[in-house]
Amino acid sequence: MMISKMDILIGTKNPYKTAEMEHFLEGLEGIEIHLLAEIGKAIDVEEDQDTLKANAEKKAVEISQHTDWYVLASDGGVDIPSLGKKWDILKNQRTVGENKSDREKVEVLIGLMDGLKEEDRKCAYHLALAIARRGQLLWSFQDISDVGYIVEKPEDLEIPPGRWMGHIWYYPQHKKTFNQMNETERGEIRKQGAKIKAALHRYLKSVV
């Protein structure tokens, strides 16, 4: 059934992830975006599933039980193939220490990658999105949204809150880390997630 307007709640409290999902919703007509704070409830969903996609689906479904709006939720993880069993795409934060400072997290990952050179420092960000309404899963999709390299030696600069990975995520074509980029350069990088954005737009256009 087609509707003339869709209210979408972005199901995260993380400012960076909120901006990320707002980017994926750009260019759509008939969409009104809402933030989690608007429903006035503290909702914490345990990410205990076996895949990023399943975690995103679980979050979308559980959060959608607290609102009549559509809920867009996500789960993402960095894959570093050269680290093998030392690194789990589902447990990035737990591996570097959830309660550690951003600087300490950087140091842990740099330590894990000690001795690795060039292509062995390659990394990819996998992102899963899911939409649910009133407890029912409606759509989900997963793909790689970013590819880069982990620097060997981080610069001694202040790390923006919560952006520790961006401090060491390096793009050879720009000769900059993510945190060093301006918005125009970041816009170019975000084009890597075009497949995800296109899939999301196809679904939403079929509804609105």
Describe the structure.
- With 208 residues, the protein is of the alpha/beta class.
- The protein has a single domain, classed as Alpha-Beta Complex (Maf protein).
- It is 32% helix and 25% strand.
- The longest helix is centred in the C-terminal third of the chain and has 14 residues.
- The termini are close together.
Short description:
The chain is an alpha/beta fold and 208 residues long. Helices cover 32% and strands 25% of the residues. A seven-stranded mixed beta sheet has the order 2-1-3-4-5-6-7.
Structural class: alpha/beta
Q: Main beta sheet, described?
A: 7 strands, mixed
Number of helices: 7
Query: What would the CATH topology be?
Result: Maf protein
The beta-strand count equals 7
Rg result: 18 Å
- Portion in strands: 25-35%
- Numbering strands along the chain, what is their spatial order in the largest sheet? 2-1-3-4-5-6-7
> Any guess at the CATH architecture?
Alpha-Beta Complex
Average pLDDT, rounded to a whole number, is 94
Which range best describes the helical content: under 10%, 10-25%, 25-40%, 40-55%, 55-70% or over 70%?
Answer: 25-40%
Count of structural domains: 1
The low-confidence parts are: none
